[in-house]
Amino acid sequence: MTMPDAEPADWQPVDWQARANVAARSVTELFGRRLLFLPGTHLAAVQWPSKHLKNLFHPWHYWWQAHYVDCLVDAGRRELGNGATPAARFNGPRHPSAGKLASRLVTGIRLRNAFTFVNNYFDDMAWLALATRRLQGLAEETRKPGRRRNARVHKTLTLQFDSASTDDLGGGTFWSKKRDFKNTPATAPVALYYARTGQQAKAQRLVDWLNAVLFDEAQGLYIDGARLNAAGEVMVENTIYTYNQGPVLGALLELGGDANLARAAVLVDAVAKELTIPGRLVIRGEGGGDGGLFTGILVRYLALAARDERLPERIRATARSLVTDTAEAFWAGRTERDNGALVFSPQPHRAADATYPPGAAVELSTQLQAWMALEAAASLAWPSLTAAAPAAPGPEQAGRQPGRQ
After folding, report:
1. d(C-alpha 127, C-alpha 372), whole Å
2. CA 188, CA 325: separation in Å to the nearest integer?
3. Are strands 225-228 and 234-237 parallel, antiparallel or unpaired?
């Protein structure tokens, strides 16, 4: 692993905002559309090219859409930092703001999900809860009252998380309604959600369980999950996924305190050592499908570490390099199709021409991932903007396959 070289004399700062806007326009134009032509709705096709009606026959990827909301909130925060005027919009003054588009997307998610925000996977719901909370914060900052719907989302999903976070296996959060597997993909984002909604005690209990059961001391990383076998013994799934480290890092930073911050520093170092391309501070890719989001999710939370002054400067610098080097790799590997469409590679160290040759269908997850990474890099250039809304203090509220996010 090498650190970045010294900057040449003619070096010019990268305009990460402009790059993030390019990615935002590419994703919304290629994948975004109304749901069944209904006004006031928005939803992303799961692949491009794709027809409107054909989208209904594709598998439903709830959590991809939740990360689409998060990316739009990122763009909305940059619009806010640039004055929140029509001219500041990522796709031009004649289009809706990123925040309005995100709100329409939440409506589309509910309709496409059979008129409910509840589904069979607690991690899916956790990602949407985190995204809609950030959307609510954006609405408040732009002095546009958030829709009452957002409050209903949080009330409904908090009850789901409370039901899934039990003492079975000593703690943690179930992954699905089958309630046979507790893992990092569900426990970490639920812990982060609790921490951001003033439920620190619940969040800390989940983090403590992750540290006790799913933290690999040798690698400094969090493994996948644990289940009970027929004999009643706890069986651990040892696979390590890049994205699982992200929400754990976010929860550690949100909770704060010496122990959590020390563990956050260990985690950043471990990511740099174990999860990067040899010789570079570029986080490895995890392919397509659900894995097409994994690198982007980790980069999002590394950006929080890069900005957190409670961490040692060396750790912050490492986190910053992981963010910017990975985002730069995605940008350098982009390709433009004959019709002008911009496509990013699912593997940051490989060119999009190789991973998505002409004629190949492009997956939404992989394009959201690159957009997410570019937004994370852009957030580091804007001290007044944070990649996540601050925790709101308050009283505690009442209330697929292993490794899939």
Report:
1. 14
2. 25
3. antiparallel
Tokens of 324: 């910017």
Distance CA 27, CA 308 (A): 29
Helix (H, G, I), strand (E, B) or coil at 48: strand
- Give which of 211, 346, 234 is closest to 286, Cα–Cα: 346
Tell me, what amino acid is at 354?
A
C-alpha Rg value of the chain to the nearest Å = 20
- Per DSSP (E only), the strands in 79-229 are 182-183, 215-216, 221-222, 225-228
- Is cis: bond before 49, omega within 30 of 0? yes
Q: Give residue limits of the domains in the chain.
A: 15-164, 241-389
- Within 8 A by CB and 6+ apart from 135, the residues are 69, 72, 73, 76, 99, 102, 103, 106, 146, 150
Residue-wise pLDDT for 190-241, tens only, equals: 999 999 999 999 999 999 999 999 999 999 999 999 998 888 788 999 999 9
pTM exceeding 0.85: yes
The neighbouring-strand residues paired with 377 are: none
CB 51 within 8 A of CB 70: no
Crossing angle, helix 294-307 and helix 62-81, to 10 degrees?
A: 40
Do residues 379 and 241 make contact, with C-beta atoms less than 8 angstroms apart?
no
pLDDT tens per residue across span 353-386: 999 998 899 999 999 999 999 999 999 986 545 4
- Topology of the domain comprising 241-389: Glycosyltransferase (1.50.10)
Secondary element (H or E) of residue 343? strand 342-343
Q: What 3 state SS string does 113-148 have? A: CCCCCCCCEHHHHHHHHHHHHHHHHHHHHCCCCCCH
How far is residue 265 from each of residues 19, 221, 285, 314, 315, measured CA to CA in Å? 29, 11, 22, 9, 6
- Lowest-confidence segment of 68-72, 143-147, 168-172, 204-208 by average pLDDT: 143-147
**How much is the pLDDT for 228?**
83
